[in-house]
Amino acid sequence: MPFAFDVHQFLSTLLTLFVILDPPGLLPVFVGLTRSMTAADRNVAAAKASLTAFGVIAVFAVFGRSILDYLHISVPALQVSGGLLLLLVSLQLLLGMEAEPSSEEGVNVAIVPLGTPLLAGPGAIVATMLAVQHNPGLGGYLAVGLALVTAMGLVYLFLRFAGRIRRLLRRSGTVLASRIAGLLLAAIAAQMMADGVQGFIRA
User: Fold this and answer.
1) What is the separation, in whole angstroms, between the first and last Cα of the chain?
2) What is the pLDDT of residues 60-73, one digit of tens each?
3) In contact, 120 and 57? CB cutoff 8 Å
4) I need a surface site. Which of 20, 27, 53, 149 has the fewest CB within 10 A?
5) Rounded to 10 degrees, what is the CA torsion of 105, 106, 108, 114?
6) Residue 17: per-residue pLDDT
7) What's the pLDDT at 92?
8) Does 149 score more than 90 pLDDT?
C-alpha cells in the first residue's frame, strides 16, 4: 500500500530527531542567551528558533539528494560521516562539554545560534535526509515530514516554557536528561555507522 502512513517510521524518526535536538539540554543555553529579554520577546525567540530550524532541515530533506548527487557523495559515505558527527555530539552530552555560544551584535540569537547550528545542525540534517532516502514512498515522506513537524513543535514547547521547565527539573534534572540523551544518541550513531559500512561492502 504505497499511500499507507508508516507509523513505525514516524515514531523512529521522531525519537531520533528529539534525541539529536535535545530540548532539555538546550534549556540552559536558551535561558542564558535570552536572559536580558522580556517574557514576550523570549516567546518570539522560541518561535523563530523553531521555525528557522524547521526550514533549514526541511530544505535539506527535500533537496539533499540532489546536492549529494552533484557532489558525487554516496549515501553510505553520508551515513558514516553523519554517524561520526552524532558520536561527537553524544560525547559532548555525556561528558558535559557544553560550549557557550556567542552572539554577534546585530544578529538575532533566535536565528543564530539557536535556530542554526544548535538546532538545525549536521546531526539533525543528516538524520532527516537519511530517513527520507530510506522511505521513498508517499507514506514514508508523510511520516518523516510529520515527525519533523512534531519534533519542532516539542522543541518550541520546551523553549516556550524554558523557565518553568528548568525550575521544575532543576540543574540536576536537566543534566541527567542530557546524559540520557547522549547515551541514546551514541547508540544511534553506532548503528548509523554500521549501516554505512554495510553499504560500502554491498557496493
Assistant:
1) 29
2) 999 987 887 888 88
3) yes
4) 149
5) -30
6) 95
7) 76
8) yes
